[in-house]
Amino acid sequence: MIKKNLISILITFLLTLNANAVFDVNARTAILQDFLSGEILYEKEPDKSIYPASMTKIMTAIIAFDLIRNGDLNLDEKFLVSDNAWRLSSAGYSSMFIMVGDEVSVENLLKGIIVASGNDACVTLAEGIAGTEDEFAIMMTAKAKEIGMENTNFANSSGINNTNNVSTVRDIMIMSNYLIKEFPKEYEYFSEKKFTWDRTGGDPIKQGNRNPLLYKNVGVDGVKTGYLAVERYSLASSMKKKDRRIIAVASGFETKNLRSSESLKLLNWGFRNTNTFEISKKNKTMFELDTWLGKKNKIYATTKEDYYITINKKDIRHLSVTLEYEGPISAPIDTDTQIANIVISKKNEIIKKLPLYAAEDLQKVNFFKSLITSLNYLIWGDV
Known about the structure:
Elements: E1 2-8, E2 29-34, E3 40-44, H1 57-69, E4 78-80, H2 83-89, E5 103-105, H3 106-114, H4 119-130, H5 133-146, H6 169-182, E6 194-197, E7 205-208, E8 220-228, E9 232-241, E10 244-253, H7 256-273, E11 274-280, E12 287-292, E13 298-302, E14 307-312, E15 319-325, E16 329-330, E17 338-346, E18 349-358, H8 367-380
Parallel strand pairs: 12-16
Antiparallel strand pairs: 1-15, 2-3, 2-10, 4-5, 6-7, 8-9, 9-10, 11-14, 12-13, 13-18, 15-17, 17-18
């Protein structure tokens, strides 16, 4: 077995903070994930059942984005505001303040949901898409199961009081990750700080985004707050610095201030104590491997997925990435044949193996050239 060292990452400075120091978040349940690698950086009872409150609205938006992408809905399409929707705007809940009989565009409803956290906008969008909010909730739960949210059931489109509307911070993290990955352009709505609704029969209403971290100018560009008396305060948040993004979800904060400060502490802890490295980009990063009896002496190999690794900063000097393959590899070789592995190790312990596939066909040399090559090898060795 041949191993060839590709990457040796060393640090030339001492860390001033110990990533192993005791760290805790003042919330009942929390989770922190690196977006690119998918690595979980911190968790605190992440599968404990919660009432997701207005974080539910992330899925409400995803259903609409899905339909828009598939051509079954467009942003200019308008939906009629029902009595059911209007009642929520007059009952003390977060509202867009739409009126019965208004015809509101999908785009305005989405902004009313995402920025103003309008429950009335949720019901209008749900009824416009599915006919009833109950039917829309079935769509939401089905989508949740599809993307891996195993412990979630949605009972309405807004997240207001319903004991059957349940989830976990892990599932909310999965949902947030899906939103950002699948709908990067639409995700920009979640970073908008203000939304003005030119309401019927009154002056326009300007409302600010409920996410307090958007106003701190630290790289947070989403996702969604939540509050229920029984659950207290919750927040799904995402921070981006350069090319790296981290997602945090926590619930059970006792106060608004704790929701803001502890979520920011969690995000900063992730950036401060870990680094993420690109190992391979699908069909872009090419690795050269030795071949035998091929028309070329080398063949290019690549991965079928993007691969990243996240590691504690204190362990960077122990990280190595090598190629592992039986080589030289005998021709012929067909494109997409697995011919090697990328091996990621820490302190000589393998933490991940990633398959490499031939990025091209390699034909075998003709019989006579093959014979001469083999004789040369027998006489002179590997020259």
